[in-house]
Amino acid sequence: MAISFSDLHTESGLRTLDEFLSGKSFVSGDVISKDDVKVFAAVSAKPGESFPNASRWYESVSAVLASRFPGKALGVKISGQAAASAPAPAAEPAKAADDDDDDLDLFGDETEEEKKAAEEREAAAKASSKKKESGKSSVLLDVKPWDDETDMKKLEEAVRSIEMPGLLWGASKLVPVGYGIKKLQIMMTIVDDLVSVDSLIEEHLTVEPCNEYIQSCDIVAFNKI
């Protein structure tokens, strides 16, 4: 169903457009289309603050058009329209209606190169967004030996021998527990999307060969970076 606007150079026309654009990004959907270009051409200037939806839409369309036509503008002035008393040929409106899609076709058909470039930009944007969303955490672990005869140097070597993407071992120290037993406290930095601390403990630190020295592991502190 066609969308109709009129008198977009007047306050009443802009009010109608502003109400129509409430909750919408563009005239015909979530992406810019020829409909937006046609309406944009009919609006004489950027709507004021009293028309927030229309003003936001105008800026969005203007930004897209600017990116498609990067040449430096020298500035063009357009004089007033022809006097209302001058009659227009009867056949012209019909012809204009027939050629409506061509008059303001500023985009035209995309070439294969443009489509490929657009797809590459979209893929890069998604990858960048995903990368930004991937956070890091600082974790402090308690690693407990079996008894006071456990070689704590080899215990730490066993811990640090575990390597995986997104895992970085940090500083460590031995802390007395009692009865001559000491535990290893060790820091590590992880990429949240790549490393699960629970899996690290259950599938690496407390199974062979590490369980020759390690009895159990506990998370002492877990902080987002």
From TrEMBL:
Gene Ontology terms, MF aspect: guanyl-nucleotide exchange factor activity; translation elongation factor activity
Compositionally biased spans, kind Low complexity: 85-94
Any Gene Ontology CC annotation: cytosol
Lineage: Eukaryota, Viridiplantae, Streptophyta, Embryophyta, Tracheophyta
Region entry Disordered, spans: 85-106, 112-131
Domain Translation elongation factor EF1B beta/delta subunit guanine nucleotide exchange: 136-225
Keywords: Elongation factor, Protein biosynthesis
Name of the molecule in the record: Elongation factor 1-beta isoform X2
Protein task: EF-1-beta and EF-1-beta' stimulate the exchange of GDP bound to EF-1-alpha to GTP.
Feature: compositional bias, Basic and acidic residues: 113-131
Gene from which this protein is expressed: LOC109719952
SUBUNIT field: EF-1 is composed of 4 subunits: alpha, beta (1B-alpha=beta'), delta (1B-beta), and gamma (1B-gamma).
Organism encoding this protein: Ananas comosus
Family label: Belongs to the EF-1-beta/EF-1-delta family.
Record SMART domains: EF1_GNE
